[in-house]
Amino acid sequence: MTWVWRGRDDGSDPAAQRWHQVIRPWDASPLTRGRKRPIVVIGYPTDAGVRANLGRTGSADGPAALRTACANLPVPTSHALFDAGDVIGTGDDVESWQSSLAAAVAAVRAGGGTPLVLGGGHDQAFGHWLGTVRAASDGAVVGCINFDAHIDMRSLPGGRANSGTPYSQVHAWSVAHGRPFKYLVLGMQPPHNTPALIHVACGAGAQLVDADAFHPGQEASLLQLIDRFVASVDLVCLSIDLDVFSAAASPGVSAPSPMGIAPDATFRTVVRRIAASGKIAGIEIAECAPSLDIGGRTARLGAAVIDTIVRSFAVAS
Ligand SMILES: [Mn+2]
Predict the structure, then answer these.
(1) What's the gap in Å between 102 CA and the centre of ligand 1?
(2) Which of 30, 178, 192, 215 is at 20 to 30 A from 168, Cα to Cα?
(3) How many angstroms is it from 50 CA to the middle of ligand 1?
């Protein structure tokens, strides 16, 4: 990976510093850690899963664009920042990418960090979750909260994973290991999910929250639902698929959502509540495709979402 962390420099006053000035390569050395878990970037530079899902490609370049967009963010006051580089898979073998990511996430968790996965196709969600489970204590319930227009629980064609199947893989793994399946989708779009898929997901125990719930004035019921979900798990893998947002705000994705949610105060209130729960094990931004973007706005939105999360962030142990 080329070190892309560079940007504006307003001097060395800690209150004036930006991510690019303080972020360091992750070496898992205990000496480099602060009191709280540091945030550790991991890139997932592949759109193999998107290609296998017949989507518009481009998210292989997402991690570099998201790093560049994060470079000028103000440094968080309470968390050190590291970059563990990009994971590497074998060509279009999606499972090999997921497996590399799982190993990287587990290593960062074991080393005391909180992974911030930058994608890349949404197939990354299974690697993110699996690595978290591997590093967690035995029996810990690791739930998934996914902001997404899509449920991403489609069946695996020919048994092979793609960007539309990560939570089917989480479900299959959970069933095979006799573990609870805890999955909450926020911002789901009825035009982009068939009734059959909704039926399958609900039958598996997924909780689906329609994009219409993100209406100003409905925050209270949304927050209640999130609190209940978070209380039912030990750890949360938080995923933001950038196609949850309207295509106007987020055009640079494989499958844009004309009627997606706005990155407005309602969204920010909800995401802050999750971030402040103290149960976040890892964060991921998925489906950023710079070649499909307009003036870099999707990558900048991804960075703004990351900043919003990190500011409210209470880490899980
Ligand atoms: Mn998705």
Answers:
(1) 18
(2) 215
(3) 10
